[in-house]
Amino acid sequence: MSRSVAEVLTGAAVLAVGIGFAVWAAGSAGRGFGAGASYPLVASFRAVDGIQVGSDVRLAGLKVGTITALTLNPKTFFADATISMQQGIELPVDTAILISQDGLLGGNYVELRPGGMDEVLAPGDEIEDTQGSVSLLSLLMKFVGGGSDSAASSGTDGG
Hints:
Elements: H1 2-28, E1 38-45, E2 56-59, E3 62-72, E4 79-86, E5 96-101, E6 108-113, E7 126-127, E8 129-131, H2 136-157
Parallel strand pairs: 1-7, 2-6, 5-8
Antiparallel strand pairs: 1-4, 2-3, 3-4, 5-6
């Protein structure tokens, strides 16, 4: 009889730890039970490589929102992003939004850089100042190509 009681208690402890882990994971993913209110903003990017629905939107390194939708605008051929911002964070209308990277091997996220104007963005407004993602491979190719061009030109100038 004592063996079955020990098994029940062990099972209950494992179940409690599992539920605790699920609650912690939901809270850290921004989907907690007490998640605060939010409001939408829109931005249009030339390229959104590395960004997907659910990507973080950060301000001063802290998560303040999430990408909730990415669609292709058939008129401009830009990627329109819908952002869910935490209620209470009022951004100036001249705020810039750009796609940044967490180092060489890190993932991409969306960064907000507030401007200095007194007027603030209302729910549903569009952030005009955008910068899409930068391809690390294309930057490397420009650097390598630019370095060989300057070496070749310096070799011909000296002759």
